[in-house]
Amino acid sequence: MERWRGVESVPTTWGRCVVTIGVFDGVHRGHQQIIEQSVARARELGVPSVVMTFDPHPIEVIRPGSHPPMLTGQRYKADLVEALGVDVFCVLPFTLDVMRLTAQEFVHGVLVEKLHASVVVVGENFRYGNKGSGTVATLAEDGRRFGFSVEGFPLQGRGDMTWSSTYIRSCVSAGDVATATEALGREHRIHGVVVRGDQRGRELGYPTANLEPLPWSAIPADGVYAGRLVRGSGPQAQLLPAAISIGTNPTFAGTERRVEAFVLDYTGDLYGEHVGLAFTERLRETLRFDAVEPLKAQMAFDVERTRSVLGVQPSEGW
Predict the structure, then answer these.
(1) Is 1:89 a contact under the CB 8 Å cutoff?
(2) 84: which of 28, 59, 291, 299 is 20 to 30 A away, CA to CA?
(3) pLDDT tens, 10-51?
(4) Under a CB-based contact definition with an 8 Å cutoff, are residues 94 and 58 in contact?
């Protein structure tokens, strides 16, 4: 899959294509169906499929300071999109100039002149252009004028629940990672760099990898989770079973919220690595202990529960 930043990256020899447009935060099950539809249409027509997304989230430019927690960073989003068979992942920097484009200017300047779209596949609630003035209906009208067709994809969900990034963020924020998994079609992950902490976990016999998450990461509610530390990406990624703690370490009067993972049966050095943390199940809320020994006993119990949830026997990990 090719990865472009900005429409300036479109090759001068670029022909027709099928385009789908959206923020696609989380690339959840609803997004997946839209993208799969665009890939199928592109294959029918014998042209490339393009996913266009934005960076930063448009709402941060429209209302500075209101950036929502993000379910997927751009790199991980691109990996997820690639796995769906897309040919090109194009990130359009969302600037003030882009925000000010009218709906027709966006269509003509981006979809027609740069991408040469044959088909545009979007969700039925898709809005675009300055102040969201463009809709699927106006897009279809412009398509008739400029020679491309438009397919508005109905919103997807289960029962009376619609899959949406907002809904999944609320699940993650509440610590309900199991429900988030159902809507995403996979476990929620956050990514970042492993940094040095205060070494307290090592002193307690449970050395942890302290994650410095990417900006605006959708971090689950404080508590302890069974999950996995992810090294690498794609089919070759290593998934290491881990007990993950999120919180301020109240037993030690901590004030800084931290994300720490005790990787089961692992003795290597992870400092400086860019890793992911995947959340399988919330085990408990954050607790404050009056002494170290009860804390250590609880940590031992958390590790055993993590083994049980993940189906991992001692020494099965790294």
Answers:
(1) yes
(2) 59
(3) 999 999 999 999 999 999 999 999 999 999 999 999 999 999
(4) yes
State the DSSP H helix or E strand holding residue 59, giving kind and residue range, or none if neither.
helix 58-62
pLDDT category at 162 given cuts 50, 70, 90 is confident
Going from the C-alpha of 289 to that of each of 177, 221, 286, 298, the distances in angstroms are 25, 19, 10, 10
Widest distance between CA atoms in the chain: 73
pTM of this prediction exceeds 0.85: yes
CA pair distance 292, 288, nearest whole angstrom? 10
- Residue 259 pairs in a beta bridge with 211, 246
Helix (H, G, I), strand (E, B) or coil at 197: coil
Residue 97 CA to residue 109 CA, distance in Å, equals 12
Ordered by where they begin, the domains of the chain are 2-158 (3.40.50.620), 187-310 (2.40.30.30)
Among 145, 118, 119, 105, residue whose Cα is nearest residue 15? 118
Q: How far is CA 274 from CA 54, 69, 318, in A?
A: 23, 19, 18
Determine the Cα–Cα distance for residues 41 and 30; give it in Å rounded to an integer. 17
Q: What is the mean pLDDT of the chain?
A: 92
Residue type, 58: P
Check if the beta carbon of residue 240 is closer than 8 Å to that of residue 262. no
Element (H, E) at 275: strand 274-284
Burial 248-286 (b: 16+ CB within 10 A, else e): ebebeeeeeebbbbbbbebeeebeeeebbbbbbbbbeee
State which amino acid sits at residue 204: L
Token pair of 33 as six digits: 């169906």
Give the containing element (helix H, strand E) for 245.
strand 238-247
Task: Retrieve residue 141's tokens.
Answer: 């009208």
Record the tokens describing residue 88, joined without a space: 């090109």
